[in-house]
Amino acid sequence: MKDIERLSSGIIKLDEMLCGGIPKGFFVAVAGEPGTGKTVLGLHFSWQGIKEGDRVIYVTTEESRESVMKQASQFGMDLESAVSEGKAIIIDALMGHDRWTLTSLDPEQLVQKVIEAKKVLGYGRARLVVDSMSAFWLDRPAMARKYSYYMKKVLYKWDFTVLATTQYAITTASAFGFGLEHIADGIIRFRRAVRGGVLRRYVLIEKMRQTQHDLRMYEIAIVAGKGLVILRPTPERAEDLALPLPVTRKILEAKKKVESEIPGEEGV
Ligand SMILES: Nc1ncnc2c1ncn2[C@@H]1O[C@H](COP(=O)(O)OP(=O)(O)O)[C@@H](O)[C@H]1O
Ligand SMILES: [Mg+2]
């Protein structure tokens, strides 16, 4: 499909890997271990939206609004001005005390708040980053898929293209993002490995409906003043970076359980 509308991710090389960007209206899961670049990608996507005149909503569950703005400024993104100029709203689900705060990590409250924010920002193409989505079902992992499906369905009607991060807790299967990944239109996976005593990070587009995309895993860097930089395709095999076997086993078991509980909503 050549002429679907796409949104730039804010990273030119990633757009190329996506054959032009993220299809409009998509609900994309951004998965990976801590420190791999998920939040930085969310910032690029948000900042690109500001530059293009989109309505931008960023939900933060793990860092305060101030921390998000500070991190963005280190990459040359002036989110703070965008917020004060009414171009973006950062919903703080961690420690806010104002109108743009969540009092609990409840998916319905999240959706209501996001819609309220969209109304304030005004009509038009919108971007939403939820960082992280897994926070909303930490204590009820079996609900991950149901919640994700609900959010995707409602938000699509409000002209959102969504990036939702999800993370792996290495010691427990409870926070795994498979529920989200199942209903997502796309999956951008970050990975990490220590090679020669140095932390290396990688990105791989695992899924993107309705479009061709690069199938190679790329090494990335996070650079002050710039943000996320895609370096080169890596000769590493994906299985070299796999999670430890017991963890993988846990994921598969938990995944099977959820799939048996909830009937498929694929293609919605
Ligand atoms: N100003 C900076 N300069 C260079 N690297 C940075 C800077 N700020 C953050 N980083 C790197 O980005 C990493 C955090 O990436 P982040 O996207 O927040 O990870 P996560 O996947 O957990 O969301 C940090 O561990 C650090 O290595
Ligand atoms: Mg993060």
The main sheet orders its strands as 5-4-6-7-3-8-9-10-11
Beta-strand segment tally: 11
Taken from the alpha-carbon principal axes, the silhouette is globular
CATH fold category name? Rossmann fold
Global Rg: 18 Å
The main β sheet shows up as:
9 strands, mixed
Q: How many alpha or pi helices? A: 8
Catalogue the ligands: adenosine-5'-diphosphate, magnesium ion
Q: Class in CATH?
A: Alpha Beta
Poorly predicted runs: 170-175, 264-268
Class by SSE composition: alpha/beta
Q: CATH-wise, what's the superfamily?
A: P-loop containing nucleotide triphosphate hydrolases
Total separate domains: 1
In which range does the helix fraction lie? 25-40%
Percent of residues in beta strands?
25-35%
Return the CATH architecture: 3-Layer(aba) Sandwich
List the helices and strands and how they pair.
Blueprint: E1 6-7, H1 12-17, E2 22-23, E3 27-32, H2 38-52, E4 55-60, H3 65-73, H4 79-84, E5 88-92, H5 107-121, E6 126-131, H6 144-156, E7 160-167, H7 178-183, E8 186-195, E9 198-208, E10 218-223, E11 227-233, H8 245-261
Parallel strand pairs: 3-7, 3-8, 4-5, 4-6, 6-7
Antiparallel strand pairs: 1-2, 8-9, 9-10, 10-11
Helix pairs in contact: 5-6
The structure holds adenosine-5'-diphosphate and magnesium ion.
